[in-house]
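Hello again, I could really use a second opinion on something today. I owe you a coffee for this, so here goes:
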Amino acid sequence: MTKNPFQAVIDALLEPSKPFPKKYLSLFSDIDSASLKLVLDVWPRISLTRKRTLLEELDALLDEATIVSFDDFARALLTDPDAPVRAGAMRLLAECDDVKLLPVYEKIITSDPEPDARAEAARVLNLFVDLGEMDEIPESVLHRAEEALLAAMHDDDAEVRRRALESLGYSSREEVPALIEAAVQREDPDWQASALIAMGRSNEERWSEPIVRMMLSEYRNVRLEAVKAAGELSLPAARLPLLRMLDEEEDSTILSAIIWSLSQVGGEDVRTYLENLLVQTEDDDELDFIEDALANLSFTEDMEHFDFLAIDPDMDLIELLDEDEEEKPAPKKAAKGGKKKK
């Protein structure tokens, strides 16, 4: 009998004394049924540490490479006895829009004994709310996702409630603004950060004042999420504070968020600041990131200039597009989320 080439992966999984070879990680992408069966057959014999580490490494690879998909492997682990494995499987499915997953997430939110798993289920439901608000999935699915999240707002565990609030940020349900307002009024920086995430997803400029104010918070996670929210909403009022923060902020992660948010906000002096940063930077990764931000800024500027209300209704769309002979590059990175239904 011919040996399945995936057997080498199985052997490595069962060898806890040696690091799992990185070259095998991509083999879990779009895994075939025979290989998946091999993994699941030996899964109970694999050490818990190896299982958890494997899922963490697959998640890291998913962030780095857009051409991989671990959906089939992750689906098989949603009922694993270990809560961190269940949560890790859901993280791998964070971009999977298969509505058949909704009942699974609903069940985890309502009955999983472990709060980490319930929190992760609440987090990944943000995708279904976002898609529902853009009319890309049936309204009934959107409603079920929202109801599950609203119910999760009464969970005993604070992290579950916070993740539910973040996911509800995409929702246009009338209950949501009050939930966000209540969270941002708390003195707990974790709740404030979650409120800011929800604000950034809301497509509502009504949150401009608290977002700009909280960009100056003493708490790192609050500053970071406020900066991100300002970019997600392209808040004009955030431009000058962001430019000041660019000179004053010392945290590298927040600095990167400031640069990207400025590329989303646009406006006077933003291009000059980013181009100056490009000249001053010697690190290759930072150079690539700033170049991406400048490309995104070009996209933002194009959108600002492309005023649909000013289009001559008698002009053919092809003629209109042909007027712009010099196209600027589209961004490599884009903010998630779309325009909400009114």
Notes: Residues 325-342 have pLDDT under 50 and may be disordered.
